[in-house]
Design goal:
The complex is a heterodimer of chains A (132) and B (461). Chain A has 132 residues and is of the alpha+beta class. Chain A contains 3 helices and 3 strands; from the N terminus they run ααβββα. Helix content of chain B is 52%, strand content 11%. In chain B, strands 4-3-9-5-8-7-6 form a 7-stranded mixed beta sheet, with helices on both faces. In chain B, strands 10-12-11 form a 3-stranded antiparallel beta sheet. In chain B, helix 6 packs antiparallel against helix 8, helix 16 packs across helix 17 and helix 16 packs across helix 19. Classes of the chains: A alpha+beta (132), B alpha/beta (461). Strand 3 of chain A pairs parallel with strand 1 of chain B.
């Protein structure tokens, strides 16, 4: 695994004892294969769990703009205020606002999902968001 | 939208999400977990850099740097990169570049002479060369033509203006190639070496590099050339000390002889029947640059014009078409003074524009004059920098700004005595009508002489 938890990019390589078994021709062959990998996979996952909760909120706001194409997105409220299950709100040109709830969890279970939905759906539903 | 940093790949979570969507049909419920965030962020390297750092961005968003670089610099890709670079560099250098009239280059000992037009053909990989000559003797022009000739002869030339060097050669090289290729200079050189193109680094006007950086520049050039196996061609007012690995031929420019002067004047449109009278007008001028300006001002030169009067007339003529020539000249003064105070030969473009706009507002002139100034033939705006096309323009305009701004001769003399302004006195003196000022200037520098043979100041006599 790589430092980010993904798969280390690697080519086809023959190392250690295999080199010895292949002899010098095998080593050359192995080097050639290392230089010309047939399949190289990029790291697949970022270490999102290492983000602070503030960073996560800002990341969600940035994604709302760049990935969801919101005109504007910003964190909703400050610590200690009732947020009704909304951490970030995004506004669009031709659709209702969308609200985002950011959960900095190590593990996420079905019960966490249920609680998160209930926090918004069962509350005052600020911004009357269609997407949540 | 529920966004979590955790992995949400779980059948129970998926089933719960489906159930909740059924239950809350008035809402569109989405769930982003670690995988979804990662997939989205792969295409958003700026966000990855911001939240996870540069290193992560490089590995995560550009997963194949080694292989990619290899591919870029090899085979068809590398060849295309080089072709594009050479084509763009060629058109850039050719644009507005006057033909190269054959002038003489002489080796340091004075034993060997050859034509400046042969420089590119004379060069061989590893044959480093320095070209030295006074200002206006055509060094930059010769290097630009050499770069073109070398590109056509199968070299990979990189033309670096030493004036932009600020301590890191890699940055300056990247800036030099940036208008012509998306590659860094090092990537370009790697591609060139794979294609077996000899690399040549042309370092123009080392004298325009701030003095405190000159040794460092040549040290870094030397190290870079060792790594890149490049040949170095440099130019400066005087020969500079260079590390042994890039020492080589030392050539000096020679003032044009009668035949070369005639060829030069003809190249600027002087008709054969006018040659004699124009040559008379140009008698006071010895350098290629002076002759080129004088040829463009035939019969419009002031009587007995010296170098300062020549440049003054040329700049004046160039600014005639401007909507507000005086305001434009004041903008040029302002830029020249800023460069003079900073001991540099350029200004950041944004700052030049902003400060000129402020000046024009103060003067009650149209702000559009800034654009006219940037388009003026004495100024060059490129790479987000503004510079004068020739150091003499900067010197004349600085001297003129001082003459205009100083209330009396004593004040002007005081300004000209400052160590970094010693070169300016020869420009300021002919511009000033008060002989007392001339005397005041000369008191401090009795050994200096005005470079113009026709200048009316005491130095010229």
């Amino acid at each position: 695994m790589d430092p980010m938890g993904g798969v280390v990019p690697r080519g086809i390589s023959v190392g250690g004892g295999d080199d010895a078994a292949l002899g010098s021709g095998g080593v050359d062959q192995a080097r050639e294969l290392e230089l010309s990998p047939l399949t190289v996979t990029a790291p697949l996952l970022l270490r999102t769990h290492e983000l602070s909760w503030e960073a996560l909120e800002h990341l969600v706001a940035a994604l709302a703009v760049q990935a969801d194409h919101a005109l504007e997105a910003r964190p909703f409220g400050r610590g200690g205020q009732a947020q009704n299950g909304v951490d970030v709100v995004a506004f669009f040109a031709s659709q209702p606002a969308a609200v985002y709830q950011a959960k900095r969890y190590e593990k996420f279970a079905a019960s966490d999902l249920r609680r998160a939905v209930l926090a918004y759906a069962g509350g005052s539903r600020p911004f009357d968001a269609g997407v949540w | 939208m529920i966004v979590t940093t955790a992995d949400v790949r779980d059948t129970k979570v998926d089933l719960e999400l489906t159930r909740l969507r059924e239950q809350h049909r008035d809402l569109v419920i989405d769930l982003w977990g670690r995988q979804q965030l990662s997939d989205m962020l792969f295409a958003l390297p700026d966000l990855v850099r911001r939240f996870f750092g540069e290193d992560t961005m490089r590995v995560f968003c550009r997963p194949l740097p080694g292989v990619e670089a290899q591919a870029e610099s090899s085979g068809a890709t590398g060849g295309r990169v080089l072709e594009d670079y050479l084509a763009h560099l060629g058109s850039y250098l050719s644009e507005g570049l006057h033909e190269l009239v054959a002038l003489t280059l002489e080796d340091e000992g004075g034993t060997e002479r050859f034509s400046s037009t042969e420089l590119a053909a004379w060069l061989q990989p590893g044959r480093h060369v320095q070209v030295a000559g006074s200002s206006g003797t055509g060094k930059s022009h010769t290097l630009a033509h050499a770069a073109l000739g070398l590109a056509q002869a199968g070299w990979l030339p990189i033309l670096l203006r030493a004036g932009v060097y600020a301590g890191r050669l890699e940055d300056s090289l990247d800036e030099s190639v940036a208008p012509f290729t998306p590659q860094t200079a090092d990537s370009l050189v790697r591609a060139g070496r794979l294609e077996r193109l000899p690399v040549v680094l042309l370092v123009d006007a080392i004298n325009e590099c701030p003095v405190r950086f000159q040794d460092r520049l040549m040290q870094q050039v030397s190290s870079w050339c060792l790594r890149a196996e490049a040949t170095v061609v440099s130019s400066s007012h005087e020969f500079v000390h260079v590390p042994t690995v890039i020492s080589g031929a030392r050539l000096r420019t020679v003032d044009p002889d009668l035949r070369q002067r005639a060829a030069l004047l003809r190249s600027y449109g002087v008709r054969p029947e006018d040659e004699r009278s124009v040559e008379d007008e140009c008698e006071a001028f010895s350098t290629v640059f002076e002759l080129s300006l004088a040829a463009q001002l035939t019969q419009r030169l002031p009587a007995n014009a010296g170098r300062a009067a020549l440049l003054d007339a040329y700049i004046g003529e160039q600014l005639q078409q401007a909507s507000q020539p005086t305001a434009l000249r004041q903008v040029l003064h302002h830029w020249a003074m800023l460069m003079d105070e900073r001991l540099t030969g350029w200004l950041p473009l944004a700052e030049a524009q902003r400060s000129a706009a402020q000046l024009l507002t103060t003067l009650g002139a149209a702000v559009g004059v800034v654009d006219e100034a940037l388009r003026s033939p004495v100024v060059r705006a490129r790479h987000q920098r503004v510079e004068f096309r020739h150091e003499w323009y900067a010197q004349l305009l600085t001297a003129e700004a001082l003459v205009w701004s100083c209330t009396g001769g004593t004040e002007l003399a005081g300004e000209l005595r400052r160590p970094h302004r010693r070169k300016l006195a020869v420009w300021a003196v002919p511009l000033h009508s008060d002989p007392n000022v001339v005397r005041a200037c000369c008191v401090d520098s009795p050994t200096r002489r005005c470079s113009s043979r026709r200048c009316a100041c005491a130095w010229g006599r």
